[in-house]
Amino acid sequence: SIVKPAEEEAYTELYETLYQAVDELRTYGGRKVIILLSDGQDFPLENNPNFPTREGIEGAIRFAQQEGISVFTIGLSARADRENLLRIAEETGGAYFWVYDPAQLRTLYNLIRQQILQEYLLIYSATMAPAEKKPVRVVYTTDGERSEAERFYFSGTIFGMGREKLDWKGFLFIPFSCALLWVLSLCRFEQKKALPSLAVTNSSSRKTQVHELPVTKVKSEITIGGGPSSDVTISSDPKIRETQARISVKGGVYTISSKSPIKINNRQVTTKVLRSGDLIKMGDTHVVFDTGVVKAEVQKVKKSSKRGEGPKKTSSRRTGSKKAVSKRGRR
Asked: Domain 7-117 in CATH: superfamily?
């Protein structure tokens, strides 16, 4: 059952939770919208282990703007912080509403849905002529009604400088870039793995093992932990629990979750959509996630199914038993 905490124990991580929602939603395609139902009050918990680095309202709004995610805010009481809720909505391309009757939420959700379905996508080619700031105004007229909006953007020629500030020093980067490309061409890079994988490195032994992850529907979740029942067993690290985390896949998107906070890219979280190169730290062990050539492998699975290969044969070749995964993970 849900128990209401005492007033001195209650807290609301509004802005950090909004930032986290944008981070989890940005990997999906299409039009993305967040509906925020709140009183607009932010009461952060001091030294909250889930948010060691704080972004605040400025960081949450800036992150949503960068990812093109609109936030529609709904004030749920007469005491709602209208100023902050209105600011979040306007600066991210959403809208602010207030309701005092929960029964009105269904109507409000349909209103937001209709507004999104009636949106237009406008593409504007910005000029590079130097100016302090440039306005862009959009005017829409229908049935005698006129609506308009205006925004400003900044643009320069090279390195954000106008033509009057350019000199020969600004072009030194060209030979430097060519030299850097030549140096990189001499480097040998490790070949990308065919399947999504986890590279597990223990800080004490310095040994790395690579474990491939499932890309079919036969096995949509794996467990990581120190116990023998885990799919990926890390027995050399006593700080890792028997089942430390779970990685699930849906629609080609991998999501890691854990009951206790784990550190991913130096940020403590309990759940996160994984991207290639994400660094996961569990105890004294570092785990690097790699997406691999997922699309190519999925196509191979589909082609083999058409040729009459049974699903069991395909799945055993992709996922295999726990022992098979461990053998493939050793270098």
From this structure: von Willebrand factor, type A domain (3.40.50.410)
